[in-house]
């Protein structure tokens, strides 16, 4: 596959998930919280296309409605991490000196802790809810993005047009926003698109461990966590949310790879 195919395939999948997130409650054939104890663990059928779970809730409806939760957590985490990481990277790379050393040491310290361990510790401290989940994922993503942006800024600040802007007395914020940031956008956008897929995986992992959005909300990680004890009885209750997670991560990765190939002049 070439870059346009990666990009178009990823964009198509992401558009489909976005539509499900926006109109999921209208599209879902059943109330995702409605229980039917007489239909527990029903396999896929004409009434329930993807079967039912351990208390008779329609799996298709829960996956559709849960798209909004999973996508919102991933996008919010990437948005906040992008804002903070880009700002820190720009400041560290442009000003250098003590400012650069302080930011670099702080990011290096955070990067010494495995991201999943860091997110688990933060969720445990903040609380097992959407706010805690977004905060934890955001903090775990900031260091790597800040280092990436810093490295790009260190390259750009030595170019002639940046030196000329500095020589004529242009203020630092204007240099950063007018000359450096626009030339680092491609790297930032590619990294953020790939981070979104990682955010889905981390959010799902924490939900699986019971540290994410709490039941009865149809969050995919929580659905996977609840289904693990029923794998032998009704494997579809784990397979279906697992496939949803895989497809969403694939969509972000295809989109990110396509962007990288399209925007990187060396490809």
Describe this structure in words.
By secondary structure, the chain is mainly α. It has 9 helices and no strands. Helices cover 74% and strands 0% of the residues.
Task: Label this structure with key terms.
9 helices, elongated, MetI-like fold, mainly alpha, 267 residues, 74% helix
Secondary structure topology:
Blueprint: H1 3-27, H2 59-95, H3 97-111, H4 115-126, H5 130-156, H6 160-167, H7 172-208, H8 220-227, H9 236-263
Helix pairs in contact: 1-2, 1-9, 2-3, 2-5, 2-7, 2-9, 3-5, 4-5, 5-7, 6-7, 7-8, 7-9, 8-9
Report the CATH architecture.
Orthogonal Bundle
Task: Specify Rg, calculated over alpha carbons.
Answer: 22 Å
Please give the domain count: 1
Number of helices: 9
Regions with pLDDT < 50 over 5+ consecutive residues? none
Largest sheet: none
Beta-strand residue fraction: under 5%
Q: State the helicity in percent bands.
A: over 70%
CATH superfamily: MetI-like
CATH class: Mainly Alpha
Mean pLDDT: 91
Number of strands: 0
CATH domain topology:
MetI-like fold
Shape, principal axes of CA atoms: elongated
H/E order of the elements?
Answer: HHHHHHHHH
Structural class: mainly alpha
Spatial gap, N to C terminus: 14 Å
